[in-house]
Amino acid sequence: MSRRARLWVLAIGLLATAALYAAACVHLPHFGGQWHPYGDRAVETSLRQNTANTVSSVNFDQRAFDTLGEESILFGSVLGTVVLLRQTRGERRVRPQPADQPAVLRRYGAVVLPVTLAIGLYVIAHGQLSPGGGFQGGVVVATALHLLYVSADYRALERLRPVELYEIADGAGEAAYVVLGAAGLLAGSAYLANTLPHGTFNTMASGGTVPLLNAAVGMEVASGVVVLLAHFLEQAIEIEDGGNDDENPDENGKGERA
Question: Is residue 95 classed exposed, middle or buried when 0-12, 13-18 and 19+ CB atoms within 10 A define those classes?
Answer without folding.
Answer: exposed
